[in-house]
């Protein structure tokens, strides 16, 4: 889905492929790719049809799942995506707290 969307071939088809990947992953869960499928969809494809603020719960869940399976690289990327989406949805006074949380999260990895 991401390749189709990023090359500008067909955004709707790329979105549908992303949904298909999520459905396959849900039907046949494999911990090794669990976080990667979710990360690609919610950070790169989901925004085509939805507001980024709607992706925040999915990205946060993905970050937590990645940590649970020991994929710290993906958890770190997920943290960045989660907090960047938060920047678009939160009032300015909350930004300083989020930057601090990002720094704290990155220190864990």
Description:
This protein has helices at residues 2-6, 11-27, 31-45, 52-68, 72-87, 92-108. The two termini are 29 Å apart. It is flat. With 109 residues, the protein is an all-alpha fold. 80% of the residues lie in helices and 0% in strands. It has six helices and no strands.
Q: How is the secondary structure organized here?
A:
Blueprint: H1 2-6, H2 11-27, H3 31-45, H4 52-68, H5 72-87, H6 92-108
Helix pairs in contact: 2-3, 3-4, 3-5, 4-5, 5-6
Main beta-sheet strand count, sense and barrel state: none
How far apart the termini lie comes to 29 Å
> In which range does the helix fraction lie?
over 70%
Task: Write down the secondary-structure element order.
Answer: HHHHHH
Tally of DSSP helical segments: 6
Global mean pLDDT: 75
Query: Which regions have little confidence, pLDDT < 50, spanning 5+ residues?
Result: none
Q: What global shape is seen?
A: flat
**Radius of gyration (Å):** 14 Å
Hey, roughly how much beta strand do the residues contain? under 5%
Instruction: Write down how many β-strands occur, each being a DSSP E stretch of 2 or more residues.
Output: 0
Structural class, by secondary structure, is mainly alpha
Give the quaternary arrangement of the chains: single chain
């Amino acid at each position: 889905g991401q390749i189709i969307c990023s090359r500008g071939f067909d955004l709707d088809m790329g979105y549908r492929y992303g949904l298909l990947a999520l459905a396959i992953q849900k039907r046949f869960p494999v911990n090794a790719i669990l976080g990667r499928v979710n990360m690609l969809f919610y950070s790169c494809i989901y925004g085509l049809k939805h507001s980024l603020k709607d992706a925040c719960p999915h990205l946060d869940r993905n970050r937590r799942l990645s940590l649970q399976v020991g994929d710290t690289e993906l958890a770190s990327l997920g943290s960045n995506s989660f907090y960047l989406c938060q920047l678009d949805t939160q009032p300015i006074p909350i930004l300083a707290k989020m930057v601090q949380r990002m720094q704290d999260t990155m220190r864990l990895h």
